[in-house]
Amino acid sequence: MFAVSVMAAAQTSPPAPAALTLDQAVQEAIANNLDLAAEKLNVSVAEARGITARLRPNPVLTVSGQSLNILGATYSPATPLGPNQMNIHTDFPLERGHKREQRIAVANEEKSLAELGVREVMRQVIASVQSAFVDVQQAKENLSLAQENLRSLESVVAINESRLKAGDLAQVELDRSRVAALQYRTAVQQAQLQLDQSKIQLQQVMGRKAKTTDMEVAGTLRRDVIADSQEELNRLALTRRPDYLSDQQSQARSRADLRLQLANGKVDYTIGTEFTRQSAWGISGNSVGLYFSMPLRVFNKNQGEIARAQREIILAGARANALESSIQTEVDKAYRQYVVSRQLLTNVETEMLAKARSVRDTTEYSYKRGEASLVEYLDAQRAFNDAMQTANDARANYARSLYLIDTVSGATVSGS
Predict the structure, then answer these.
(1) Phi then psi for 301, rounded to 5 degrees?
(2) Pairwise CA distance, residues 148 & 184, whole Å
(3) Residue 281's pLDDT is what?
């Protein structure tokens, strides 16, 4: 009966959560990031401004009346006052210079700017997730290495305990091996702590409110090869980076604003019509009038706004040039980091790892047979640990360099 209950409980226990992939982490971060959500609202604001830009000016209706029957005064030949009068006047503004079209153009440019702002924040969010994901992967490798070292030391301790019982080993030798095992046990705890902290940081970047150390990540550290040259990466960055495209869009927006300000400098006309009704002594009469008005541009010709728009074009161009130089520097640094990281990883894996593992395994075998001292074994173990740690760092740094190139070249948002 107890066995049946245990089997039922095992069958109803929830399955372990699937390991998190990098793509899933990125999508979750994009969905939860508050800065990105706030940036997306700028697109809605720009769309609302587009609605305003498409509106035409409203006609104006004016209704007025005059009465001379106040304070007992009446219209008569003896009191030559005017008759009672009612006026209905309408004014229709006529915009010139294609002002409405220019307003729409500016609104469209502002919407494009807002969309590029969303892509730029997305680029930064993706870069943060990639970096945090690599940290978790590296911490997993370090924990695996620490556990392997501990297992090796614990096997040596077990053998030494047997040798001590057989009278083939001194107590001090066993104690030294136990101390070494204790040190590696501490290293495992530290590696576990580092892994837990990396997981929490990744979940923080992803925007999760409830964080857990039970989360697992899938996949190995990235180690593909960049096919593009540095010059090609520079060219791609200037065609894909949202921040650079935003500066270019600012120039286009400033040019559209200049056209709008030039249009605002054009004089608008107002066409008016008026209906008037007069009545006195039981006699009434109606009249219709047509009016035309325009401001006289003697002082204000919109010179200030035109000058401002012209200077904003120059300012946007200067910012684009400065950012272009900065992007080229970023690409250069990222590419150099990639080349150095790749060379270091190749050297470590081809020249260091195999030798360090071979020395460690040989020395461990010799020590267990009593042909090597504990000091020699511990030195070999320490050298192996240092080599593996260097390899883990090299693999992680190489993966980071690949993600950094994607970030600085705009590859992470090229399809957005």
Answers:
(1) -115, 25
(2) 10
(3) 66
Report the SS3 class of residue 274. Answer: strand
Let me know if residue 4 belongs to a domain.
no
| Two tokens, residue 289 | 């009038």
Inside any domain, residue 392 = yes
Dist. CA 17–CA 200, nearest whole Å: 16
- Rounded Cα gap, residues 392 and 34, in angstroms: 33
Range 273-279, long-range pairs (CB < 8 A, 24+ positions): 273/89, 273/90, 274/87, 274/88, 274/89, 274/90, 275/87, 275/88, 275/89, 276/85, 276/86, 276/87, 276/88, 277/85, 277/86, 278/82, 278/83, 278/84, 278/85, 279/83, 279/84
Q: Is the pTM of this model over 0.90?
A: no
Q: Which residues of the chain have pLDDT under 70?
A: 1-17, 68-82, 281, 415-416
For the chain, the domain total comes to 1
Range of the domain at 284: 24-72+83-413
Residue 30 to residue 126: CA distance in whole angstroms: 8
Structure tokens at 102: 């220019």
Residue 20 DSSP code: B
In a domain, 239, yes or no: yes
CATH label of the domain that carries residue 315: 1.20.1600.10
pLDDT for res 2: 42
pLDDT, one tens digit per residue, over 43-92 is 999 999 999 999 999 999 999 987 765 555 555 555 556 678 889 999 99
Upper half-sphere CA count for residue 14 (Cβ side, 13 Å): 3
Measured between alpha carbons, how far is 270 from 94 in angstroms, rounded to an integer?
6
- Structure tokens, 124: 């930064």
What 3 state SS string does 164-194 have?
HHCCCCCHHHHHHHHHHHHHHHHHHHHHHHH
